[in-house]
Amino acid sequence: ELELRGKDFELIALDHLTSTLPNGDPNRIQVKEDESVEAIGGDFSAYNVCCRIPGGTGTVTGLRVVFEPAHNGKVGFGGNSMPGGFVMSTITPCFNPFPAKNIDLNTAIPYQRVTASSFKPGFRPEIVHDTNRRTGWAPALSEVNKQQHLTITFMEPVDTTRQPYLTTELVFNYGESASPKKFRLFLVKGVDDTTMLPGPLIEALALDPERRSREQAEFVRDYFNKYSGAKTLARHRVTNLQDRLKVLTGKHRIMVMNTSGKPRVTHVLERGFYTNKRQTVKPGVPAFLPPLKVPADRDLNRLDLARWLVRPDHPLTSRVAVNRFWQMFFGRGIVQSSADFGTQGERPTHPGLLDWLALTFQSSGWDVKALVRAIVTSRTYRQSSNTSAGILQRDPRNELLARGPRFRLSAEMVRDHALATSGLLVRRIGGPSVKPYHPGDLWRQVSHYGSTPATSQTYVQDHGEKLYRRSIYTYWKRTLPPPSMAAFDAPSRETCTTERGVTNTPLQAFILMNDPQYVEAARVFAESLLTSPGSDRERLSTAFERVSSRSPNEGEMEIITAALERERRQYRTDQPGAEKLLSVGESPRTRDLPAAEHAAWTNICGLLLNLSEAVTRR
Fold this sequence. Notes:
Elements (H helix, E strand, L loop, with lengths): L9 E4 L1 E6 L8 E3 L5 E3 L6 E7 L6 E10 L21 E7 L14 E6 L31 E12 L5 E7 L10 E8 L9 H7 L8 H14 L1 H21 L16 E4 L7 E5 L20 H8 L7 H14 L20 H13 L4 H9 L2 H4 L6 H6 L12 E2 L2 H12 L60 H4 L19 H9 L1 H15 L5 H13 L5 H19 L2 H8 L12 H15 L6 E2 L1
Antiparallel strand pairs: 1-11, 2-5, 3-4, 4-11, 5-10, 6-9, 6-11, 7-10, 8-9, 12-13, 14-15
């Protein structure tokens, strides 16, 4: 960092166009002759600033916000919780081909590094990555009489030739802290000249290790242990192992129901109006179903309902349950309308089979594993999905089960299949939800500021083995399912979904070829092939069989062999491209393999994981 500090550094002044207050009066903002923005008469939680980029600027690497001290000699107005200063919660830049007053989160520029001229303990600049209102960057209070600045370095350089306008959102939403009174934006070229290394550390690093004092050596070691990326990853792994140890050996708090001491009185509401209350009603079940015995000393509760649902004479519970499992394995239920067993639903195609499965399920003690085993080991399930023209014409929907089922896997199974094929899948059962790879900033569009997982605006990705757990353990935010699963028709869980739709779109292929989870799976899959003995043909045949559960025919072998040679030719002359591809994902990479060869096989494995047979049950 010290060697690169300030290399080719340059600040690009911007022409201010507009400034708005998302939650305030726009007339309370003034633009000074030096293009700085100045707020008048209060603190504001956010600013949207639009600027024109001077022609010929070209490629930029970052953005700097310079905060000027106020007339009273302090930065900002001095809020109740941060007297004399301010706290910046987040900063979001967005480049556009035209002037825009508001940012577009879908095109916001990600940044990898944040530095500042100073910071208050506990309010480091890199915290602006987190949009939680309880966090943020604040300049050191000892420096409030001086000009302060914060600089973000973009994930990748941005070419401004076709995007000559910059809209930036600055949020100051930390409790009741003040917002800055006056600031100005600059684009950055080259390497940021600001370092977050403290002065004593810089002095120690300037000395040869053997010339450092004992205190300096301890300071360098402690700072490295606290902020090193390698140490951070190791701490994540230790945390994951500690969580696993608790799951295996410890006691866990689980969610339970707490019954109210005084149950709410419920009335029939005439025509649905809450003010038109009529007779009082008690808990009960529909009259056409087996009656539910009412205890003499209390009202019915949920436990009574649960016991009623699993009574041997209940006609629906076991039938509905086995029909859902049948639908999972055959693509359609014995009763096609799996959400409706009433008079408006479809009749079962095999009523005797439905009754037999329901009774067997009940008599086994509701043993799901036994039911699944009975279905998947049946001759009906194990038959081929291939068929003749005559059978297809007579039974196009396979209602008579003359052939095996053929349908696309569910979203969770598509991901799990890729992880299992590559060898990354963690099959361990139990434990809390996990957060695998996820596009950034999506939660900001559906969440308010909050600190709980359900209300947070920031998706905090997990690390280590949590990235590869079965999809059933993936954290699911209502209204915003994981995008890679939503593309494969995973529901939003805003309402109950008994049967998912099945679509076939180009976006699904795009995800299989580009999503970090699948690219990483292809890389690890390729690594396992290259570290195993055999010729190219043997490895390609093994890979094809692991993906599709069959051997490739001669025509298919010729196609993937030609594709492998094409990829090899490309990466032999594109070493940086090979390294970039192999850097996707957090699982460690074997450095013993040539990068060009590894990258070529990675793309071949990605191609195989994108086959129809890789995502289709047949």
